[in-house]
Amino acid sequence: MDHETARGGVLGQSLAELGDGVGIELPGGAKQVVRPCLVAERLDVQHGRRIYRRCGYRGSQRAGTICAVADVLLVTDADWIAEQCEAALSGDYRLHRVRQGADTLDAIELVEPHLVLLDMQVGNMGGMAACLAVRQEEGMGRLERRPVIMLLDRDADEFLARRSEADAWLVKPINPMRLARLVASTLADAAAPA
User: Fold this and answer.
1) Is the CB of residue 122 less than 8 Å from the CB of residue 76?
2) CATH class held by domain 60-191
3) Is the pTM value of this prediction over 0.90?
4) CA distance to 35, 64, 162, per residue, from 171 (Å)
5) CA angle 85, 144, 90 (to 5 degrees)
6) Digits of tens for pLDDT over the chain (194 positions)?
7) Domain residue extents for the chain
8) What is the three-class DSSP state of 165?
């Protein structure tokens, strides 16, 4: 046990001690552990709600008002992609990271991100399979619908992104300005009334 947050005293464990949980990596190499709730003051323990230790930005101040910060889940095992996404998004978004595609659904359930960034080539489950799994869970009503942006290796992968029902995509190498604009416009489109 190593950390207590200001929000309700959630205790976390190292990734080696975790067992069946999910490890989430934050900007700067900090790690947070997604696991069942151990200690809680204002958390829903009665319904078995799973929580995680948060580190990161609480909000940004612009023109004297506090703006809400959207959570973005990044699914990639490539450190260079994580660094580029962090550089592009860290000022305006709270970035969470998982390294394995198979952890995507658990991380979405626990983090409840506003948007998911999926690398096309990620470890044990590719970005296309992870996106299809997310859409299947949403279709069955087990997850709320959220936008998914895929990070593609080449232009020809656009076909795969369309087939996996991604909302948007970007071909690597990542241009930080284009990524920031794409995330902002995708979130705005998702928030617009249908």
Assistant:
1) yes
2) alpha beta
3) no
4) 33, 37, 13
5) 20
6) 333 332 232 233 333 333 444 555 555 565 554 433 222 222 333 333 333 333 333 333 333 333 468 999 999 999 999 999 999 998 889 999 999 999 999 999 999 999 999 999 988 888 999 999 999 999 999 999 999 999 999 999 999 999 999 999 999 999 999 999 999 999 999 888 76
7) 1-55, 60-191
8) coil
